[in-house]
Amino acid sequence: WISQHSGGLGAFARKDQLSHLLLESDIQGLKTVGLLAPTIFLSVAAFLLNVVMTRLTSLQREQIAALKAFGYSNLQIAWHYLKFVLLIALVGGVIGTLGGMWLAHDFTKMFLRVYQYPELIFRVRPNVVAKAILVAGGAAIAGAFGAIALAVRLPPAEGMRPEPPAHYHPTILERIGLGRFVPNVARMILRQLERHPVKTSFSLIAISLSVAIVVVGNFVRNSVDKVIQTNFFEVQRFDLSLSMVEPVSVDAIHELASLPGIFEVEPRRSIAARLRSRNHSRRVGIMGLPSDGRLLRLVDKAGHVTQLPSDGLVLSRKLADVLHVKAGDLLRVEALQDKRPSVDVPIIALVDDISGLNAYMDIRALNRLMREGPRASGALLTTDPMFRPAIYRHLKETPAIASVSVKQASVDSFKNTVAKNMLQMRMINLTFAIIIALGVVYNGARISLSERSRELATLRVIGFTKREISTILLGEIGTITLLGIPFGLFLGYWLAWGLTYFLDQEVFRFPFVISHSTYGLAAGVVLAASVGSALLVRHLLNDLDLIAVLKSRE
């Protein structure tokens, strides 16, 4: 398919070379995603570990103070908690290594299926595993460092006393005079969120990142759907594409229209050429088409059609970038076949297309450049489906025809390959997003319940119902989730835009398209994960032992 759309690239590029170009393009994309995804996951993991360690050291204030009073140094206490962090990092590293090997093996099979190599060797290098564990361990230590530092700086006398109560102050709404319009429960929720700005901010960021992961993951599917629609239905409007053994008269091409079941016939000519601009050059195929043709159009990512001029070149925007030229410049065209003419041709327009380094000319102008009469190296046909078997037989028996490409077969093959890979990638992205949302929401709610159990139990004793205290606790989760989802959609939009920039390769370029269903799926997945976590915490809240919680330790 790339060969057909790239103006006869297959005429001079072997299949294995084209596969390597495609593979290189995909590897560049995976490198970009491979930098983005670990950054997100390590940031969330560091935040969660910081929250856990802060709560752990807060619960063990008295034990830390007693140990320091008995002569334990700050370094010994810090090393005690650091071992706990390192154990988590080590266990997580083992699980992550096994999971990474499984995912890498699946990626290897995916590349083998797409590019049809006879063999791709899957190998895990020890230095890669070691680097991954070291980076994860470093992120864990960085996340827990703040909590451990607070613990070791605690004076023994202060640690023996109960933790001082939190500092309460009016919320922003109360300070601007809108507090009387806010219900009491809502004010409790807002005060709790404002009292812990760092924790609230990181929770908000983590929820946003989980939404963004789903947006970016499904953006690729939306982009591929746009590629299929643009290339196979807006650019390629033919049913069959013929390639001749050698260029023939244009009249011979038009004679195909006399066959039963053929509606339209348009000649095309492809030549191999080297385009040169100063010290920049690139070997490409130049596609010659009728300027008034309908069966192969020049369509950009936005769906705008560029009319082929009667003279001069139309280049892909990416090819113009490679050659450092623009519309209006002269380009040296060195033909690599037949009489091998070398002439300067003006660049009339640029088209921001989706794939390949393409160059187009009017077929009559291309024949003049080659110093030949009206010649064609192929044809584009539209046909009646009922007559296609007879048309195939006739074309197969015609000696001058080297190959016949059926567009529908290319569409089906492309869709089948992409469908398998996209489904796998979507499941991986959804799984990671759900894990992040569950981890952030459940962890935050569970720790809040542990910190505020006495406060919530007191409210129950003075007459608040289970539903009301559930609203107070879970309202914080809901507020963070509802604020994080729009921000995550915005973040996912810009991450997807950045991905299109990094995946702007010579062979393939992703159009920037995000459908409304992608935004809906991202918001729905994270919202469902948050609701599930909230229900788990509410179950614990309903089982709260009021008497045990309200007992004061002497």
Brief descriptors of the model:
single chain, 554 residues, alpha+beta, 6-stranded mixed barrel, two-stranded antiparallel sheet, 17 helices, 11 strands, disordered N terminus
Please give a structural write-up.
The chain is of the alpha+beta class and 554 residues long. Helices cover 61% and strands 14% of the residues. The chain is built from 17 helices and 11 strands. Helix 2 (15-59) packs parallel to helix 5 (126-152) and helix 2 runs parallel beside helix 14. The longest helix is centred in the last third of the chain and has 55 residues, at 407-461. It is elongated. It starts with a helix and ends with a helix. Mean pLDDT is 78; it is low at 1-26.
Give the gist of this structure.
The protein has 554 residues and is α+β, with helices and mostly antiparallel strands. 61% of the residues lie in helices and 14% in strands.
Secondary structure topology:
Blueprint: H1 2-5, H2 15-59, H3 61-69, H4 74-115, H5 126-152, H6 156-160, H7 172-175, H8 184-195, H9 197-235, E1 240-249, H10 250-254, E2 262-277, E3 280-289, E4 298-299, E5 305-306, E6 313-316, H11 317-323, E7 330-335, E8 342-351, E9 359-362, H12 363-369, E10 375-383, H13 388-396, E11 401-406, H14 407-461, H15 466-502, H16 516-542, H17 546-550
Parallel strand pairs: 3-9, 6-8
Antiparallel strand pairs: 1-10, 1-11, 2-3, 2-7, 2-10, 4-5, 6-9, 7-8
Helix pairs in contact: 2-4, 2-5, 2-9, 2-14, 4-5, 8-15, 9-14, 9-15, 9-16, 14-15, 14-16, 15-16
